[in-house]
Amino acid sequence: MTEKALLKPIKIGPYELPNRVFMAPMTRSRADNPENAATPLIAEYYAQRASAGLLITEGSQVSKQAVGYINTPGIYSGAQIEGWRQVTRAVHDRDGHIFCQLWHCGRMSHPDFHDGRLPVAPSAINPNDKSFTRKGFKDTVTPHALTTDEIHDTTQDFRRAAENAITAGFDGVEIHSANGYLFHQFFTNCSNVRTDEYGGSHENKARFFFETLDAVGRAIGFGKVGIRLNPSAHGFFGVTLDKATIPTFEHIVERLNDYHELAYAHFTEPLAPVDNVLDAVKEIAKHFRPRYRGTLVINCRFKHDSGNRVLDEGCADAVAFGKAFISNPDLVERIRRGAPWAKWDEDTFYVPGSKGYTDYPCFEEHP
Ligand SMILES: Cc1cc2nc3c(=O)[nH]c(=O)nc-3n(C[C@H](O)[C@H](O)[C@H](O)COP(=O)(O)O)c2cc1C
């Protein structure tokens, strides 16, 4: 009986999806060309995984300023639209559905990516982390605090990127508002000490996010837009959680209920243990399910049994699997058959080429 929960169809936005096994967005750093455009190899990788109910791509930068890592694909230039078009075609040829994750790294970047100019953020506060540049890991710097006009321009970058995604054939987009990147930087006091309408109150800290959601939704239709939140993130990507953080997320989620057509809200359980973090929510799905009336996607460390259970308990509507999808292109079929899951190789997460990328076999191919 529980087997069925993950394999039940689900409707998100205008789409009837065949199952609730989504692929979580994962940076794989294979856009190793001067245009940072998706390649035939990237198309093959996503096509291999097209039986997922929904594929969510790796973070894709919405502008040059949004970049924070080497070899990540963009969705702001003509070449990038053409690159992604091969991916969406390959996935649609296999009857899959694919959303493009729209990404701005904000202060989690380095001047090396910006011809020496500073990365941007809500406030001029160094995350005191490392940035992986062409010359290896470098210390992050104190970023430039965005002006009001620059915030508005960034919203337009997201709107244009969403339109580009539709032009490239994507079924929709996921706004990356998690994991310590630009929107998350606005949500938390550790990175946002603004005194204007973009800082201070929960409403102000969420303003840039909702202005962007509005712009993107109006441009491509809210049914083609998902969003991602990681409310209990703490101690990585420059994020420090404090007593205001969870109330800010509760405010955001409460307001998301007004977006009746939104495709989904995608939550991550704590990526790192938060047992000793006083103000963190330990169980994200359980905490936010009663607060959110839309389609709730949950992620982080789910397996076959726990994935079915979280759905059966009514705490989520779909489960996004990350690393399991790296090493199991046929994850849905393995769930259907109760077959074992192959282990992933962390050493090949971010290196160029097909090794550890498109060479994981399907279950049938094992002796
Ligand atoms: C190699 C790798 C790259 C990732 N890149 C992204 C990304 O681009 N965008 C994002 O929102 N999360 C990213 N994540 C986080 C995953 O989406 C997911 O939250 C995490 O892997 C936990 O889920 P899992 O336990 O099912 O793997 C990445 C994770 C991994 C392992």
User: Can you list the strand order of the major beta sheet?
Assistant: 3-4-5-10-11-12-13-14
- The sequence of SSEs as H and E is HEEEHEHEEEEEHEHHEHEHEHEHH
Quaternary structure: single chain
Ligands in the model, by name, code or SMILES, are: flavin mononucleotide
The DSSP helix count reads 11
The averaged pLDDT comes out at 97
Report the strand count.
Answer: 14
Largest sheet: 8 strands, parallel, barrel
Strand content: 15-25%
What gross morphology would you assign?
A: globular
In helices, the fraction of residues equals 25-40%
What is the straight-line distance between the termini?
A: 29 Å
| Rg calculated over all Cα atoms | 19 Å
Structural class comes to alpha/beta
Poorly predicted regions: none
Task: List the main descriptive attributes of the protein structure presented here.
single chain; 367 residues; two-stranded antiparallel ribbon; 11 helices; 14 strands; 31% helix; globular; binds flavin mononucleotide
Could you give a short description of this structure?
By secondary structure, the chain is α/β, with parallel strands linked by helices. It has helices spanning 3-7, 40-48, 78-93, 148-167, 182-187, 202-220, 245-256, 284-288, 304-312, 323-327, 331-337, and strands spanning 10-12, 15-17, 21-23, 54-61, 98-103, 120-121, 130-133, 136-139, 144-145, 172-176, 225-229, 264-268, 296-299, 318-321.
Describe the model.
The chain is α/β, with parallel strands linked by helices. The chain contains 11 helices and 14 strands. Strand 3, helix 2 and strand 4 form a beta-alpha-beta unit. The protein starts with a helix and ends in a 30-residue tail after the last helix. The chain binds flavin mononucleotide. Flavin mononucleotide (FMN) binds next to strand 4 and helix 10. The site of flavin mononucleotide has 21 residues, from strand 4 and helix 10.
